[in-house]
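Input (structure):
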């Protein structure tokens, strides 16, 4: 399912798998992420079939609020056929409830520019934009063509 998320995000922003995705090997990175202190992960199901997942992490705030943490939705994905029926909202509610039980009352979600469905989803769940990351690439149009094997720049 992560591969589907990565493909969807890469179609919107070709740098996504290299800057916002999981490092290779993906399975090990995913396992490490969900085992982090403060991580919260859920899967969404319909009739016992997994159709989505959500992973959030806790991040510290800066001084003078360094005693507080913010919950950050790192990844959310729902199969295309299962969208619009409440799976994403149920996963978000479950993760936010877990984080609230830990004292978290601030939440962020990372959304790619141009991903209108994700933006609308989070806005319908009470989120508002508070930051936009600007990016510039002088590496040429094929620099991030999805070939993860050459992302270090080393020649093969």
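Output (sequence):
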């Amino acid at each position: 399912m992560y591969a589907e998320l990565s493909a969807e995000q890469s179609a919107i922003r070709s740098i996504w798998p290299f800057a916002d995705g999981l490092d290779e090997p993906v399975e090990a990175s995913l396992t490490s992420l969900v085992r982090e202190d403060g991580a919260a992960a859920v899967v969404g199901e319909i009739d016992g079939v997994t159709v989505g997942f959500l992973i959030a992490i806790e991040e510290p705030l800066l001084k003078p609020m360094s005693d507080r943490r913010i919950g950050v939705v790192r990844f959310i994905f729902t199969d295309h056929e299962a969208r619009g029926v409440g799976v994403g909202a149920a996963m978000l509610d479950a993760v936010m409830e877990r984080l609230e039980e830990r004292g978290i009352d601030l939440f962020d979600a990372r959304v790619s520019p141009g991903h209108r469905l994700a933006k609308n989803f989070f806005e319908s769940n009470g989120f508002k934009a508070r930051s936009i990351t600007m990016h510039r690439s002088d590496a040429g149009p094929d620099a991030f063509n999805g070939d993860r094997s050459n992302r270090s720049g080393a020649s093969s």
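Notes: The chain has a mean pLDDT of 90. The two ends are 29 Å apart (CA to CA).
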